[in-house]
Each structure stands twice: as C-alpha cells, then as structure tokens.
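Readers of this paper often ask what the protein records in our data store actually look like. Nothing more is needed to write down the fold, since each code stands for a local backbone conformation. Below, we set out a record of this kind in full and without editing:
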Amino acid sequence: MKKLIKCGKLFKASNEAVQQNMAIVVEDNKISDVLEISRIGDLGNYEVMDLSDKFIMPGLIDSHTHCWGNGSFKELTVDGMYTVSPPTYALRGIKWVQNDLMAGFTTIRDAGAPGFADVAIRDAINEGYHWGPRMMAAGLPLNALGGHGDSPLQPPYTGGDRNNVRAIICGPDQARQAARFNFKYGADFIKFMSTYGVLTTGDDPGAQEMTYEEVRAIIEVAEFRGKTTATHAHGLNGIKCAVKAGVTSIEHGTFIDEETAEMMVERGTFLVPTLTVNTRMLSKMKEGEIADYAIKKAQICKKVHFTNIKMAYDKGVKIALGTDAAAPYLYHGTQAEELVLMVEKVGMKPEHALISATKTGSELLGWDDRIGTIEKGKLADIIAVEGNPLNDMNVMRNVGFVMKDGTVYKNFGEVIV
C-alpha cells in the first residue's frame, strides 16, 4: 500500500519556500507525488502518517563523518588507533552510524576509516545485513609521509607505504598508487590531506603537507573514474593548492581568504566547514582529557574559523554541512549543532543552513538525482521535527520522524527497527 504523509509545513529544499497543508505520496522506496492535501482522494487507499502539525523536510546529509570513532580523544591517539583491528572498527561503527540515522542523517559521507571499515559498513547496510544511513565511503585517508595522521611509531613498525590506518605517500607516483589502491578495495571517493592538522602531535595546522603534483595525481586518478575528492585543509596554501588542482571539496577551510573563496566560486568547489569540531572540544573538555598541543592548535583555529567561513558564505561559496563526527565530544547522532552554529555564528539564513544539509550536500556527493530534495521520483528520505527550524534551529537537535528509502525508522517516540 502507498504511504501518505500529511505535512503541516513542508520544506522541499529545492528552494527557500515553505508550503502549507501538503501531502507526500510514497510508493515503495520513492516519492511518487507531492501535492496539496485537498487534492487527495480517498484516504483509505493509503497508509496515512499524520504529521500535519510538524515541519517536514528531506533527510539530512552529513558530508564529513568518521564511522570508526565516537567522541573520544583517546581513539585518535596512536595508542588508540593502532591497537584496534579493522573488524572491531566496523562492528563498533555500525551502532554509531545507526545513531546518525536516528538523528535524521539519512545519508553520510564517511571521510576515511582504518582497514576500510567504512566500506564494510556501507556494504553491510546496502546488502541488508544491518540497517543504517546511506553511505559514501573514502576507505583509507591519504597522507604525505610524516604528515597529519601519519604515526610517529619508529621503524620497522611503520615509516612509509600504507598500514591499516592510513595510506602514506611521498611523490606523485605513490599518490596515484594509493588512490588506485583505495578504489580497488571499494572506496567511493578519495580523501587526502593538503595540510597538517589539530589533533596530530607536533605539526602546524596551517602548513601545507602535499605538493601540487601529489595532489593533482590523486585527483587525476579520481577524475579518470568519474569520482570525487575531498581534502583536509586548514592552511591557506594547502587550500589554494587543492582548489587549483581541481579538488571537489575543501574540508574545514579554516584560514581561507577572499581570493581563494572567489576562486572556489569560479571553479564550483564545495566547502565543508565542520564548525562543531573545535567548538565542541574547547567547550566540553575536562582537565587532562585533551593533549595540550591539540588545545593550543584548536584555539588558534577557532579564533578565525567563523569569520572566514562567513566571508566565504557571503561571497557565494557552495557550503555543504559536514561535522567530523568522531572528533572529541562530537558523538554520532549529535551533529545538529552544526546547523545552529551556521546560523548563530556564521550568519547563514536558516533556509540556507537547511539547504546545505540537504540539496547542496546531495550535489557534493553527486547524488542529487536521487536525494537532497522532496520531489517526485526522488528516494523517500524524509524527516520531521516539532517547531520551526527557520525560527529556532535548535529544534533540529531532536528529529522526531525519520524515513529512509520509504521505511520509517522513528515516529515521534516510536522506534521502528
């Protein structure tokens, strides 16, 4: 039987409009019609879900998650990362990505996991062994030798090539090889590091990590396959390098400047700001839980991050919501704070913040023909909340209704899994 969702307020995300008294018809796993409730005939022909006092919108997309961790700094240390087996990462991660789905994130782009754990979880969900969000997986992140994320373990335990946690490259040939290796074992896109970072010991988050030739080699391999790329990039030089080389999205973008933002607009490069990472860590940490070097770097980044992302937004850079779920205190299922920060700290219009988590996210993933808006023919990924997020974005912290692929997983107090 077809399902019919009666909508009080409907935000289709194809534009900024909110429609009243609409109905969504769902047949199997797709939206078969969107029309005024008054045009519906005999309701006896449908399984009716009455959300006529709720705010309805497309399922959310988190374009930067990590399924292998869940908010502990210890998980990100060498001792934490290199003493866990890839199967353990996958088995733990299933529960965590399920938390994402129950929070309204019907799709996630996982930006790298040890041992291809993200690929394993994606496949288990797609094949019906487990339930969870729709996933795009990166496999092993690509790092330059000695760069952000490379371990400081002494030879012969590490030192080059790859391990279960990273693919380590030095030079364009190794960059190509690492990208090809990832695609061979199931990656949907390539994630690489253009700059150093906050949570790795001993490096400057703004310094460029890879050469243009290395970055271009990675992107070229992805382009051959019609795939996308994402780069961890805090520092300006690394951001510029990746944009010039043709990267699909800049992750973090902390020290972006006006010239680079304009170049991103011209080239259509996406920006995934991950505003919640440093905000959550610096506000939630207790004494002794976070290493001093990470605190200092996070403080440096936080001073400029909101201001620079606002500048990029004002210039028209395409912004897609991504959170870096798994970072310290950034637990899976709590990512809605990113929407709040977009509005309250960056100054985005609430409508634009919601579009960043739906329509723009689907465009970044290249899945805008299937998800991201509520339109006839799209997959039935639909969520609902009490209240109106356009008036108070905090209501997105408590998504009450979740439908993915036409299946209801949650309906205001009733969990259906």
Q: What stands out?
A: The first helix runs from residue 78 to 81.
